Amino acid sequence: MRKIPMDRPVVEIDGDEMARVMWGWIKEKLIEPYVDLKVKYYDLHVKVRDETDDRITIETAEAIKSVGVGIKCATITPDAERVKEYNLKKAYRSPNATIREILDGTLFRAPIILKNIIPAVRFWKKPIVVARHAYGDIYSGVGLKFEEPGEAEVVYRSFSGKEARIKLPRLEGPGILQAYHNLDSSIRSFARASFKYALANNLDLWFATKDTISKVYDARFKEIFQEVYEGEFKEEFENKGLKYEYYLIDDAYARAVRSEGGFVWATKNFDGDVISDLVSAAFSGSIALMTSELLSPHGYYLSEAAHGTVRRHYYKWLKGEKTSTNPTGTIFAWTRGLRERGRRDGNEQLVAFAETLEEAVKNTIEEDRIMTQDIARVAEPPVNAIVTTEEFIEAIRRNLDKLLEKKGILS
Ligand code: NAP
Ligand code: MG
For residue 376, what are the contacts with CB-CB under 8 A and spacing of at least 6? Predict the structure, then answer.
């Protein structure tokens, strides 16, 4: 059998625990037998990050900058408990946050829709992709507790010496206050990434804030989105018959629930935090049926699964037990990354392979009704077999071989 050639490499980013175990199986059984893989391999295992004082994470991000496309396995973000468990020098920050910062990216999370995995919202037929602005707002805000009645003001002082002040209402303390910020440049690149993703995936774009109340802050978000739309994307949207809609945030929630899906929902940081969990739970009940793609305004691309390292399953696996961990999200990290590589290089065979592997996963769950335990309980009609991860991957491989043969992709 002739393998599919690759012109340029992808950055392969290995990770931790059960996700790492599945990563190896997927590569060995579903990718390497078919693709003449070209990768730049970076190991973000938590011990490697520790040995390199986390320099490896920065090198990984730089490598993505140089080849354009990365595919990432889930990694541990260490807390005090993990520092002990893995005997680390310190609690390193999230590799995803480091990489996202270097690439300046926006994260897009989309559910993987399967016809026998019924969404909790029965109108939903098409994906709702949540694009979260991962900068500023309360996530880098400051808070203050005060004990008595008093007054407060925010003072802005520019480095060139300009000053602006704004007073809060009289404070009949005790109480609390908070201040936070955002930047035009960050909002603008978030808007661009959102419009680009919507165009590339043929989806409408929604954006929502509470500008009627937040007349400076949210209004600025709305204004920048409108400017970017009119200045850079309106024509292309109209040519493709796509729509950009601005809503008030409460209206958007209500509309989303009544909609049939099929749009990108660009959200401010906090809304995205909440909505992405809500949407993923409501679509399938399993975070394993979720893709996660990072797009940067400079054209860098990174795909990964939305879930973490699946720690509880890993401990079982270490004891020699078979687990029924769902590899779908991780398989889709590979397919999305390879598809992106193929699109950029004009490698149609690679694009076709990536799409066929996704189809093979879907056939296994939808037609064979073979699945892992996490989605088995929501399947309708009921499952034929709940299987281990390895059995599931074997079943996918059988479907993949059939499909590749039928389509003549490897000949
Ligand atoms: P997790 O890995 O997302 O798993 C939480 C629970 O969700 C699992 O225990 C499992 O439930 C279920 N689950 C997640 N993925 C699944 C899959 N593929 N198949 C079946 N069930 C799945 O979160 P965690 O175990 O709380 O966190 C472990 C580590 O992951 C943490 O150190 C965290 O820092 C890291 N993390 C990394 C990323 C990333 O790299 N992008 C994202 C999130 C978390 P049951 O146990 O009930 O079966
Ligand atoms: Mg959240």
Answer: 383, 386
Question: Could you list the mean pLDDT of each consecutive 10-residue stretch along the chain, which spans 411 residues?
Answer: 93 98 98 98 98 98 98 96 97 91 88 91 93 89 96 97 96 96 95 94 97 97 98 98 98 96 96 88 88 90 95 98 98 98 97 98 97 91 95 98 94 76
Q: How far is the CA of 353 from the centre of ligand 2 (A)?
A: 33
Q: Which ligand is nearest to the CA of 75?
A: 1
Which amino acid, one-letter code, is at 13? I
CA atoms within 13 A on the CB side of 206: 24
308 lines ligand 1 (CB under 6 A): yes
**Domains by residue range for the chain, with CATH:** 1-108+286-411 (3.40.718.10), 118-140+183-284 (3.40.718.10), 142-179 (no CATH)
Span from the CA of 332 to the centroid of ligand 1 (angstroms): 16
Residue 45 CB coordination number (10 Å): 18
